Amino acid sequence: MKNEYNVQKLQTLFRDFYCVTGLRVGLFDAAGRPILEYPIGCSKLCSLVRATEEGRHRCLECDAYGIKQAGERGQAFDYRCHAGLIDVCAPMRDEDGIVGYVIFGQSLDNMNRERQWEVVKKNCADLVADTDALRSAFDELKGVDAEYIGAVIHILDACIGYIRLDRMMKSSKSGLWRTILSYIGRNLSSKISLATVAEELGVSVSTICRCVKSNADCTLGELIWHERIELAKQMLSTTDLSVMEVASRVGVDDYNYFIRMFRRHCGKSPAAWRRDEKKNRLSVN
């Protein structure tokens, strides 16, 4: 609800970005939640790492770290992920500030591949038991230098400008609206009420209601459920957490109520949605 994305056009743009650079790219909203990626899935090495729950957890933490640093600096931030690969996170802006992030990378520098291999092997020792498979995946990674990364960032800046100019992303201009969404995103695992949101943000209940209605055409309660369902879908697709654990992590203690609300929003139970999502990913790959 925070932004409207023309996913088809963005996928085309990211496909072109990948064809030119050979680097995988993902789009995240302002709260750090994934919107889309190209190509779908990750490199072979990252797939091996993410085959375990701990590996997926570390990858998500790295994405969150990159987004935090890029947000605080207000510019592209390059860093090494927990496995030892190069990633770059760049903020996307409109007139009101940062509205999302783009992360690209899963690459190496081109200085000393063997030294980097030793680092990757050590970092992934507790995640990937098959060292030969890890080495084979490592050998497929693209090597880049600082000049190349700088050029890619310039290309990405042009892409982001194109996104704005072509109105692929329509952002709300309301500072309060952004603040409401940010508050909800930070507190989804807790109980959220209209009164607490108004008190925390220092505005009246009626102001909150008007802002949510004008920007999302729904009530605050409906908005909170939308955000909880979106977070639940992310967890169902990227972790092996049980449905009950997912419900708890998105702030719903009543497991049966969570099932009913998920079915109302998605047309199927969480377990069925997870099965279908895995089938879709396999069919794409």
Short overview:
The protein is of the alpha+beta class and 285 residues long. It has helices at residues 7-21, 44-49, 53-73, 113-123, 131-139, 146-165, 175-186, 194-201, 205-216, 220-238, 243-249, 255-266, 270-284, and strands at residues 3-5, 24-29, 34-38, 77-80, 86-94, 97-109, 143-144, 169-171.
Structural summary, described in words:
The chain is an alpha+beta fold and 285 residues long. The chain folds into 2 domains: 169 residues, Beta-Lactamase; 110 residues, Orthogonal Bundle (Arc Repressor Mutant, subunit A), CATH 1.10.10. It is 59% helix and 16% strand. The protein contains 13 helices and 8 strands. The strands form 2 sheets. Strands 2, 3, 4, 5, 6 and 7 form a 6-stranded mixed sheet that branches. A hairpin with a 2-residue loop joins strand 5 and strand 6. Helix 8 crosses helix 9. The longest helix is centred in the N-terminal third of the chain and has 21 residues. The radius of gyration is 20 Å and the shape is globular. About 2% of the residues have low confidence.
The Rg value, from CA coordinates, equals: 20 Å
Q: For the residues shown, what is the average pLDDT?
A: 86
Q: Tell me how many strands there are.
A: 8
CATH top level of the largest domain is: Alpha Beta
The topology string of helices and strands comes to: EHEEHHEEEHHEHEHHHHHHH
The total of helices stands at: 13
CATH topology name of the largest domain: Beta-Lactamase
CATH architecture of the largest domain: 2-Layer Sandwich
State the helical fraction.
55-70%
Spans where pLDDT lies below 50 across 5 or more residues = 169-173
What does the largest sheet look like?
A: 6 strands, mixed
